[in-house]
Amino acid sequence: MNLIDKLIEIGKEVHSRNWVPATGGNLSAKINEERIIITRSGSHKGYLTVKDFVVVDMNGNLVEGDGKPSAETLLHATVYKLFPWVGSVLHIHSLNSTLISRLTDGQIVLEDYELIKAFGYKTHRERIHVPVLENSQDMEELSRLVRDVLTGTDKVVGFILRSHGVYVWGKDPWDAFVRLEALDFLLECELKLMGVRS
Ligand SMILES: CSC[C@@H](O)[C@@H](O)C(=O)COP(=O)(O)O
Ligand SMILES: [Zn+2]
Which residue numbers delimit the Class II aldolase/adducin N-terminal domain (predicted)? Predict the structure, then answer.
């Protein structure tokens, strides 16, 4: 299966979970060190076809395909540039990531969950971090912020844009999807715990 087919399949899957309502979200995969394939801006992630993908360079410039690359292309490029091992970046607007960001300042710290091992760690004892960043429509500024919070740490497994959604990455589209599933589950656990404790 090629990269586009895999991303189309992931689009259907995230749509079936109500993670990408109303054309929200964007999906990408790295073709090589200089090129990314990413969803076209405004495409519905549950009904993607080959025409909904464009090729961009690592600065977000369109290289191939019709239409405008995702409005958030620069955020994907920032993750690829920082982590050479990453082969796919997924962004969704799940309820769990959106709601928890409205109740959290700074970052979410996850520890003592078995599913932490889904991020490649050997033990549930590892503490992993999910920074919550202020949402912005200024992608240049936001990508600088993302670069700053991701620099010099291997404990950040994703980031959330407040009241917007979550970004997760992996070595390929399937790995990124499994991590996304794990992270959304962990966010739901934290959200429910907040409800119980309040
Ligand atoms: C439906 S508005 C959502 C967008 O503003 C954005 O947050 C989003 O995730 C999708 O943007 P897109 O440009 O289609 O990749
Ligand atoms: Zn979004």
Answer: 5-191
